[in-house]
Structure formats: structure tokens, C-alpha cells
């Protein structure tokens, strides 16, 4: 949570008023720190004496993940094809960046 707070403080005090903020911004590294801390916490909390997982359990997890990804791709395919028709990635990025800035008085 402190890492997220640090990222928010950096954005609201420094990067918000930049005409062209740096990419990647220092706040991005602060936001990424949250995921590093969560990964370290999960590794620390996993019990070491749990033993090895059976091969069938790994196969079940892989098949479930593949099925979920297939279902999501099938469900979102019409939406994504309409959203990306006639729009390049750079155009979408420029539009997102310009709409996120508010006019300054």
C-alpha cells in the first residue's frame, strides 16, 4: 500500500503538471513495487513442507487456464474487433493521453 501511495503522490505532485511526462515515469516504478512486494509476500507465506504437487493437478490447472482463456477470447473477440477497426495503436495512445489531460487555466 505504501508503494501505491508513493506512486499516487508522485503523479499528483509532480507528473500531473508536466507537459510531456517521462516514460517510464518514476511513479510507474513505485506502482510496480506493489507487485514485487505482493510476490515476495506470497513466496514467504507458502509452506515449505507442502510436498510436490501431483502431475495430474498441474494438468488440471493448465487445462482450466486454457479453457478460461479460450472462453474469454471468444467472448471479447467481437468487442475488440469493433474497437480496433480503423484505429492504430499510436492513434489510440495519443487519444488516451490527450483525453486524460485537463485544460489548465
What does the model show?
It is flat, with a radius of gyration of 21 Å. Helices cover 70% and strands 0% of the residues. It has helices at 2-13, 26-45, 55-83, 89-100. The chain has a domain at 1-47. It is built from four helices and no strands. The relative contact order is 0.07. By secondary structure, it is mostly helical.
- Average per-residue pLDDT, rounded, comes to 79
**How far apart lie the N and C ends?**
33 Å
Using only C-alpha atoms, the radius of gyration works out to 21 Å
Describe the global form.
flat
User: Count of DSSP helices?
Assistant: 4
Name the structural class.
Answer: mainly alpha
Share of helix, binned: 55-70%
H-E order: HHHH
Low-confidence stretches: none
| Number of strand segments | 0
- Biggest sheet descriptor: none
- Fraction in beta strands: under 5%
Amino acid at each position: 500500500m505504501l508503494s501505491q501511495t508513493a506512486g499516487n503522490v508522485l503523479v499528483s505532485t509532480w507528473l500531473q503538471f508536466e507537459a510531456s511526462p517521462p516514460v517510464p515515469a518514476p511513479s510507474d516504478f513505485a506502482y510496480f513495487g506493489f507487485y514485487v512486494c505482493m510476490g515476495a509476500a506470497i513466496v514467504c507465506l507458502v509452506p515449505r513442507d507442502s510436498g510436490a504437487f501431483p502431475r495430474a493437478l498441474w494438468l488440471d490447472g493448465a487445462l482450466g487456464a486454457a479453457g478460461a482463456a479460450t472462453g474469454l477470447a471468444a467472448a471479447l473477440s467481437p468487442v475488440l474487433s469493433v474497437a480496433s477497426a480503423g484505429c492504430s495503436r499510436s492513434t489510440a495512445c495519443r487519444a488516451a493521453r490527450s483525453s486524460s489531460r485537463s485544460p489548465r487555466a
